[in-house]
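Form 12-C: Joint structure prediction
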Amino acid sequence: MSTPDPTDELLSAYLDGEVTADERSTVADALARSADCRAALAELAVARDAVRGLDDPELPAEFLADIERAVAAGSTAQAAAAVTDMGSDGSRPRRGLAWLAGGAAAAALLAAMVIPSTDRVDPAVRARVDAHAARSSVSDDPVSELAPVATATGGPRR
Amino acid sequence: MRRRTPWIARAAAAVVGGVLVASGMLPDGFASSSFAASEDESGVELLARARDAAANFDFTGEVVVEWRDDDGRLHRERVPVREADGVLRVGEKRKIIGAGDDRLLARDGVWKRLWAGPSDSTGSELVAVDPERKYAFTVSDGPRTAGRNTTLVEVARSARGSKRSDKPGRVSERFAVDDATGLLLRREQLDRRGRVERAVRFVELNDPTPASMSGSDDAPSAKGSAPKAIAKTNVAADVPARLGHGFALTGLYRAADGTTHAFYSDGIYTASVFRQDGELDRQELPDDSTSTDFAGRTLTTYSTPSGAVVVWADDDRVFTLVSDAPKRDLDAMVRDLPEASEAGTATEVARFVFGPFRW
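Section 2 - Result
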């Protein structure tokens, strides 16, 4: 029985580094066996960048496409096998180098994906106070929990 | 001292009262008495019932919210409240609506969804809360509030809940519960000197009547998505099941922006720990803060009518703690939250190596 591909939500969490070890393993397995999964992950990564905007220097236009092609060409294990082939088969050095480059690029891509973002974040203090009061008011007395956040002058402005 | 009556008599009275009210054999003036505080209810029972009472009555009124800032000044603001047909409306300039487990906040004339039920997380990591493990409750006649008789529940750290001595602690919280309806009319938090630190009290309450639930006062439609309850296994393992002095994890949520929200309670106070991955942008922090160094961290703190807010950064994660608990509880919570982990160090190394490929 085939294992279904991870959901977009799980892939998104994977990109954000917010997965458990088991989930990370599940996604890694899926990436190794499923071209659809790799494509979905690449799409999510591109979409996320489009939304966030990147402060870092731009990568060459072909960089992501090259990596996608390298990943789509085979798993890391296959890449390692190709490198071994290159050592024993001097007649195919260019193919071996291509696998090596592809494997390295795939490793870099996967490593980059599992590293949490270092984006600068706004703690959104006022919104956190509102969220806390909202949750508290569900399990505690709603009037005394919600009235403080309804004040116009209390607490941080944002 | 209040007299205790057998539980069977209380249960029978409740059943008979409920049947009479339901059958219309009691006039309106008596109807609310079925919700009245029993003379021998414990403090925990009274407070538990008060939490549900607001949904059982339609009422209009006004509360005064008081809070003390970091300079010791007491601020005061009046806030209108109205409960009708299961919809609670609070505030005038800043409006909030509660309907069932949904919470809506008006911003720039548009209703945004703050919370949407159900609020329960699942998972064996969630811990049941027993407030009597930490606190001692004293019940006595309370102060007249908004012209109504009340029962006072005073809460102090119990000898078992106090780690510093065998004696019960000072009173830290006072609740005044309406004798006729069970509504919570007054809540006050006291500081070490017995001064009011924060308070919410009714100054006006107009004839509460049992809720009609006709559904005529519908909540408005709202935009935005509320945080979703998640199981602890879906986040990093460093969300502690217990925090500080007796706080237990009772809910775990993830907001649309990826922020993890862990909700804790000790039965009297609550605390939310928000965690964001990334580097704290200090320029985005609001003014009026106080900075202190504590447990190896630089804490930025705010005093609000809802409680204290503490913000700090730790290993490319930003923590925001919001709680109405006393300061010593806050200190213990901050101390308990994870410091830079080995995984965090590994991440730093990997980030250095793979920096050029960072998303």
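Section 3 - Comments
Residues 7-23 of chain B form the longest helix (17 residues). Chain B has a mean pLDDT of 79.
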